[in-house]
Amino acid sequence: MTKKIETALVQGGRNPTKAYGFVNPKLVRGSTVLYPDMATKLDTGRHVLEPVDIYGLCGNETHFALEAMIAQVEGGTRCQVVGSGLAAITVPLLAYLKAGDHLLVPDSVYGPTRTFCDGLLRRYGVETNYYDPMLSEDAARAALRPNTSVLFTESPGSHTFEVQDIPMLARVAHTAGVKLFMDNTWGIQNFQPFTHGVDVSIQALTKYAGGHSDIILGAVTVNCDEDWRWLRFGALELGSYASPDDCWLALRGLRTLNLRLKAQGGAALHLAHWFAARPEVARVLHPALPSCPGHEFFVRDFTGACGLFGVVFKPEYSPEAVVAMIDALQLFGIGASWGGYESLVLPTTGTIRRSAGTGEFEGKMARFQIGLENMDDLIADLEQGLAALRAA
Ligand SMILES: Cc1ncc(COP(=O)(O)O)c(C=O)c1O
User: Fold this and answer.
1) Residue bearing the CA closest to ligand 1, atom 8
2) Are domains 5-255 and 257-391 of this chain identical in fold?
3) What fold, for 257-391?
4) Which of 143, 157, 239, 282 minimizes the number of CB atoms within 10 Å of its CB?
5) Ligand 1 lining (C-beta closer than 6 Å)
6) pLDDT digit of tens for each residue in the chain (392 aa)?
7) How far is the CA of 201 from the centre of ligand 1 (A)?
8) Residue 274's Cα: distance from chain center in Å?
9) Helix or strand or coil: residue 223?
């Protein structure tokens, strides 16, 4: 029986009879696994693709519980947890690519993904080209080369929230025998990557899965045996590992993911509309608003939104005015990452890097992550922040 997300988040990744009747799975820490005899030890190599205890690096039941849960949330068959969201990007790229390959990456990609492509991947002989995340099907086909092996996507884009046409990109990629990767961190339970044609789905569990700003963790999910072999062997060759403590916390965070996403996504949407009606604001970059590039794909493909969006201020407001607003805010922490229970803000103009000509916005920008605070309190704080913007 395919379970609905609310049920999957409660029932998944646990087997009380295996945990001596306790509701939650055990937190297991360990390196050495002891075998009853040599015959069993010699047999272990054959099971490296399965969730069995072989050696600490291959994972233990705490990892396997979380992996089973993420695979279910993403609608895939198998998942590999890794030490960070960034590792969930770099591990599969290293696993699938080889020297001489060509990689396509959206111009709106998370900054450290770009750093990895232009740094280590280039040094290892992989060439990356950046494409407009809003490109047409013809342009997508034209961007492919005979040696393109991965088409990377991130939807919505980091800081600027362009929603990509994933089914179209899947069509283009698969016709050419290219693998489609997606950083699905923003969508998490609200975008089903495999029903839209993705081959490799990436999650920074640091964000909403953790939900409490206290872990760093990533997950890569696939939907067939062939991809699982690429991913699993690549992760093992790289010695990739995730802390069981963080996995246990992520599993606990996931139990309330649906509630937190509903509350924070709803509050963010309310504030996105609030910002859109403000005289200081030129445009709100929230996928659920028509002012966001790719809004039509959001409406078609997503079942909801998280609490992260961007605001473009009118051109008359300087970078210093945006900084004055941010400094005036009392309830919005100034900090990177997102998906925790607390509200955050960051200026984004000047931090985004573009090379495919897609970085032109009408004014200075800021990114907001909306937490679980009271809405009236948040609005009162934003009112006085905007007063500081106007006064600067
Ligand atoms: C879209 C996206 N992907 C990946 C990451 C990386 O996650 P982590 O901080 O766990 O390395 C981030 C972090 O901000 C992100 O925003």
Assistant:
1) 85
2) no
3) Aspartate Aminotransferase, domain 1 (3.90.1150)
4) 239
5) 84-86, 110, 154, 158, 183, 185, 204, 206, 216, 218, 337
6) 578 999 999 999 988 767 678 999 999 999 999 999 999 999 988 899 999 999 999 999 999 999 999 999 999 999 999 999 999 999 999 999 999 999 999 999 999 999 999 999 999 999 999 999 999 999 999 999 999 999 999 999 999 999 999 999 999 999 999 999 999 999 999 999 999 999 999 999 999 999 999 999 999 999 999 999 999 999 999 999 999 999 999 999 999 999 999 999 999 999 999 999 999 999 999 999 999 999 999 999 999 999 999 999 999 999 999 999 999 999 999 999 999 999 999 999 888 899 998 888 999 999 999 999 999 999 999 999 999 999 99
7) 13
8) 26
9) coil
Q: Whose CA is nearest to atom 7 of ligand 1?
A: 85
Interval between CA 366 and ligand 1 midpoint (Å): 17
- If DSSP codes are grouped into helix, strand and coil, which group holds residue 327? helix
Atom of ligand 1 at shortest range from CA of 86: 11
**Closest ligand 1 atom to Cα of 338:** 14
Which class in CATH covers the domain with range 5-255? alpha beta
Question: How many CA atoms are closer than 13 Å to the CA of 128, on its beta-carbon side?
Answer: 23
Alpha helices in the chain (DSSP H): 5-11, 38-43, 61-74, 85-96, 111-116, 122-123, 137-143, 166-175, 225-237, 244-255, 257-276, 295-301, 319-328, 375-391
Q: Where are the domains of the chain?
A: 5-255, 257-391
Residue 218 structure tokens: 């990533």
Atom 14 (ligand 1): residue with closest C-alpha? 337
Atom 13 in ligand 1: residue holding the nearest Cα: 337
Q: How far is the CA of 202 from the centre of ligand 1 (A)?
A: 10
CA 387 to ligand 1 center in whole angstroms: 32
Question: Distance from the CA of 86 to the center of ligand 1, in angstroms?
Answer: 6
What is the helix, strand, coil percentage profile of the chain, to 5? 40, 15, 45
What does the alpha-carbon distance between residue 323 and residue 286 come to, in Å, rounded to a whole number? 21
**85 CA distance to ligand 1 middle (Å):** 5
